[in-house]
Amino acid sequence: MGKHKKIKVGITSGDVHGIGLEVTIKALMDSRVYDHCTPIIYASKQVIEQHMETLKLEGFHFHTIPDPEKCDSKKVNLLEVWDTDHEVQFGKPDKAAGKLAFDSLKSAVEDLASTKIDVLVTAPIDKKTIQSEDFNFPGHTEFLADYANEDNPLMILAHEGLRVALVTAHVAVEEIAKKLDRGLIVQKLDVFAKSLKQDFGIHRPRIAVLGLNPHNGDGGIMGEQESQIIAPAIQDAQEAGILAFGPYPADGFFGSPMRGSFDGVLAMYHDQGLAPFKALSFDEGVNFTAGLPIVRTSPDHGVAYDIAGKNQASESSMRRAILQACDIAVERRHFREISANPLEPASKKR
User: 26, 194, 230, 277 — which has fewest CB within 10 A?
Assistant: First the structure.
């Protein structure tokens, strides 16, 4: 297969008043990261230096570049996104910081679309302060799906052998039952199964599907979504060749030995999947957006205003997000190679 170049990882600033740049700097102070990738931070020298001074982080060096094509594969690269100084006010929500977060994201996504970088890692944003005419989305997932013109993105949280995906993501609790339908669940199962194969290298993934209501609705006493929507969707998926099973009551599933029999878990809504995932992953989980032509990961935490600027944030999830993005890029490359038609002329292979 030949020797491939190091993967260029674009890392957005996130909300600069939160912990995004802190965990990025800390993660990249570990030089072992450079064995796997060439990191490029989309921010500004002034903001990075203010973080280093406030957090008393020493020994972090970066190479300022005008374009990803000028990056140094043996250093941390900084691409200056902003041409004006910004006084960072740690822990304070601010529309100006929200704009910087969007500018960083936009610049990195444009470079990703033009293949100047290979994968994208996004630091946490404040979903309220980033809102504007240019960003009118619940979060990164929906923005990236719109940018890529894809209508079925899938949020997957991954940590070692645990992978949890969501049917509905950033949806108010009162709207969840209204959003669920048989076709949507089948679509999510299809994207999940394909991602487990091409992104995680699992040949025949087994997926557990959770119910919506307590105790799977107790035979209809507490809801009929399990019998009328979820179970029929699982059957449809099985008929399409997807190894999906359930529905399983969500309250006992994650603590059961049964969990080890599956490669992925499909939850019906955000907290049903993420609350147990985060309890089990100990802040080392990674958020991955499947169903897109690009690779995007992020740490599994938010802006954490309460500890911003105090040098208390753990970089574990960010480091894992960077390495996971590289792993997924390699898995996708390998999947394309083994799936290619061996009789097809090399000039036509992508």
Answer: 194
